[in-house]
Structures are given as structure tokens and as C-alpha cells.
């Protein structure tokens, strides 16, 4: 059991003891010992040693899982539970994601051709992610082609194991690309579409996770578009992380395309964001969690629906007691194209203090919401980018002064000021 908190001096013994536990399949007891240690009593060096140890152990466990799954696949062990493949068994019986199941099965298959890399994996020197760099590029077809061309897989095996153990993760990617070059010195035909994939996973709350793979040229175009929006939207005091900035930029690109009105027709109409919400929830000031439904099925709060209704089209649908629509009113555009042009000409950019996002990033916000009797007029309108439009629907306030200047207040009533404070 591991119970010492003087890890600097005892680290080799801890490694040996944990290795003995692992070899004796006493993994849970070893983890219980680690979980019982007081991290607050350790020095910085001890915590770092402990972290390195756990990474090595994680690699060894991943290697053993990969080896076990490969044996189970070859021996068709999943048939015992009525399943055809270990991929299906991992997904259904131990709740592994489909992507992770694919990676484990693929890694086990490819490691049979690269025993030195497999040994480094088993020793904890190589990570599952590094093995997957190889597995993503090298399959049965590539191994067969290498044999046909007389390419020595053993040389690549030794090189990859060394790079994985001694170099940054990015170096492994470059090392595997060298195998591609050896397999096909002339390079692949320039068909960029084969390297492009976009996978979108929708979660229970309506949020999404996406993975985008692109060829070098497509990736360059994507990065150029995203970076242009990131660099154009850097307000004073911005505390967003780089991933958050890029995420906002991607949504802004979508906003711009939807607003331009030149996207292909979707389901007989121009693509747009559809929100269904009961009138009672729409006019109520309460947040109303889960009160509105989006066109693709996600649910949002009534407060978020009111935000979207600030600059959109409203359609009235009268529903019967059995849920059947009885009457459909005409579309009513809250902010007309003419009014928007006038607001853009007057405000020229987002009016939230410190922002200045361009007009094509902005919505027309009702200073007094039309739900509460506010007029859809130039004097009751303000141009706000998505982020700051959200802010003013959550306690912030913008106000236009008689001299035409805009001022912004925080929810606590203090004003956001730019520049040095005057005494």
C-alpha cells in the first residue's frame, strides 16, 4: 500500500511497490492507498513526482486494457454475451464511448505489427494518445503495402518508440508522417475532400460537441476566417480563454451567414433559428428554464427566447386543448430592414462600452422590450453584438445620452468607464 507523503525520496520504492501491486492485480488496493494520502502535506516536487507516476501508471493500465481487448477480439470473447465485436461490448457493457472503443480496438490491432512500441506502451513510457497517432494512419492495408514495397517496419517501430518516450507529442505526428512519405513518395492525389470531416454530437441539454478534421488547405481557410473574427473582437478587459474566443468567432461566422440571407434553402425556407415558446412564458419576467424549444429539438429558457425575440420575426399559433394548431397568424418582423439600416447608420458598431464590434455582428436590441410595451423605433433601439446583447438581458444596461453618446452600467449600478478615473 502507498501511504508515505515524502514522495521525493521514496518515489522509486513507490513505483516498485505499485508495480508489484499491478502485477498481482491488486490495482484497487494501490489506488485506495494513493487516494488516502494528504496532498496538502506534500511539497511541490512531491506532487510533481506523484503526477509523473500516475501518468506512467495510466499508460500501463491503458496498454494492458488494449492488450486484453485485442485478445478478446481475436478469441471472439464477446460472443459469450451475444455480441459480435469487442467494440460493441465496450460500448454496451462498460459504457465506453463509440470513439474511444474504436481507438482501443484499432490500437490493439496495429500494435501487433510494432512490438517495440507495444513494449514501451506496456512499460508506461508511451501514452495511448501516441499509440493512436500511429493507429490513425497505419492499418492492415498500410502494413500490407509496406511489405509489398520492402519497407522495414522494424526501423519505424524502433524510431516511433524512441520518439514517443523522449519527445513532445507533436514529434510523434511528424514521425508517423515519415511513414506515409516512405509508403507513397509521390504523395497522395490532391483530393482535399477525403480529409474533411465534421462530427456533431448533441447532448441532452441541447448543447453540442463538434470535431472538425480538414486537409492543410481547408484548415488554413478555416483558421484564417476564425482568426479574423478573434482579432476583430478584442474588447478591453476581455477575460475569455483562447478556446472561448474561437468558439465565439465560429458562432459569429454562422450569425453573419444567416443574416446575409444567401444560404441554400432548408426545408423550403431560408435557414434561420426557430424558437417555439408559449405566450405566457414569453411575457413573464421569470427565467423559465426549459420553456422554449429550438428548431432542432434543443430546449432553452424563456429568458433566452426573449433575447432572441428582441430582433426577429414573430408568428402566432393558436393551439387547441388537444395540442392541434387551430390558427396560424402572419409573420411579423419585429425590426424591419429599414429600421435596422437606420440603427446601423446611427450607432455604426456595438454600443456596449469598450466593444465596437462591427454592424454585421450585431442585433438590434429594444431598450424597453416590445413585450413590455417598448416601441419598435429608432429611439428605443441599440446595436449590440451577441455577447453584449446577452449581457443587457442579464442585468447590464445601455443608455443613449442627449448628446448621442452611449453609456453602460453594470448590474450593481456602477458605470463601465474607459480610461483613467477623474478625481
Automatic annotation (TrEMBL):
It comes from the Bacteria. Residues 338-390 form the HNH nuclease domain. This is HNH endonuclease. One of its GO terms (molecular function) is nucleic acid binding. It holds the Pfam family HNH. The keyword Hydrolase applies. It comes from Modestobacter roseus. Belongs to the Rv1128c/1148c/1588c/1702c/1945/3466 family. InterPro entries: DUF222, HNH, HNH_nuc. The keyword tRNA processing does not apply. Keywords: Endonuclease, Hydrolase, Nuclease.
